[in-house]
Amino acid sequence: MGRLEKMEGKKEINSGNATILALGKAFPHQLVMQEFLVDGYFKNTNCDDPELKQRLTRLCKTTTVKTRYVVMSEEILKKYPELAVEGLPTVKQRLDICNAAVTEMAIEASKSCINKWGRPLSDITHVVYVSSSEARLPGGDLYLAKGLGLSPDTKRVTLYFAGCSGGVAGLRVAKDIAENNPGSRVLLATSETTIIGFKPPSVDRPYDLVGVALFGDGAGAMIIGSNPIRDIERPLFELHTAIQHFLPDTEKIIDGR
């Protein structure tokens, strides 16, 4: 986890400490209202289990989620109906959808961030790319850099399958890069879609309903660098501290396969 300090007024920046210089975000075009999610999900997965439906309804009501953006659509399910069937092999189909979707969102979020930053694209020296929604080689970092038109010399780091800690892991890596490479400017981009884990409800996996009730799709981007240039860059936060700590014998608490 990392600690952020918001830049207030004309507070002096600690020399050499990494700062967040700009923020950007992007979402898929399909907006889902929480109140309609349960009926839509059970219809799309051809499930009529009243107990599971009641459980998901309760979960949705106890969250603070009102809306979420998703890549999944009726068109995708018509093209890949096997995604809604228990037990069918669908890894290739999911990756065909997810790889393209996360790249598109990451590019859009990064362009928004770079525009707010106000410096030329060529001033980006490093890319840190984070995702748990794709798997390919070369990785999404290359497709993001290519989509933005970054120099082939731009140094790239990919963090795959870090789950919910991916964003802070990216911040930690970007902070290290920014503080140990004078003059560097790091583009940190994260992009996720729930299609990678979309499946019909099952009594054997009641915990899956929590993800259905909570998660949506989207991308975020930051420009991170130390010693911001006065009158050109406008730091938003200072990355004060970054630490990582693993609790012993907890590797099975969240188990993804």
Automatic annotation (TrEMBL):
Broad class of enzyme this protein falls into: transferase
| Keyword Cell wall biogenesis/degradation appears in the UniProt entry | no
The record's InterPro entries line, in alphabetical order, gives: Chalcone/stilbene_synt_N, Polyketide_synthase_type-III, Thiolase-like
Can you provide one Gene Ontology molecular function annotated for this UniProt record? naringenin-chalcone synthase activity
Cross-referenced SUPFAM superfamilies: Thiolase-like (SSF53901)
The EC number(s) this enzyme carries? 2.3.1.74
CDD domains for this protein: CHS_like
Q: Which PANTHER family match?
A: HYDROXYMETHYLGLUTARYL-COA SYNTHASE, TYPE III POLYKETIDE SYNTHASE B
Q: Which family does it belong to?
A: Belongs to the thiolase-like superfamily. Chalcone/stilbene synthases family.
Its annotated function is as follows: The primary product of this enzyme is 4,2',4',6'-tetrahydroxychalcone (also termed naringenin-chalcone or chalcone) which can under specific conditions spontaneously isomerize into naringenin.
The protein's name is: chalcone synthase
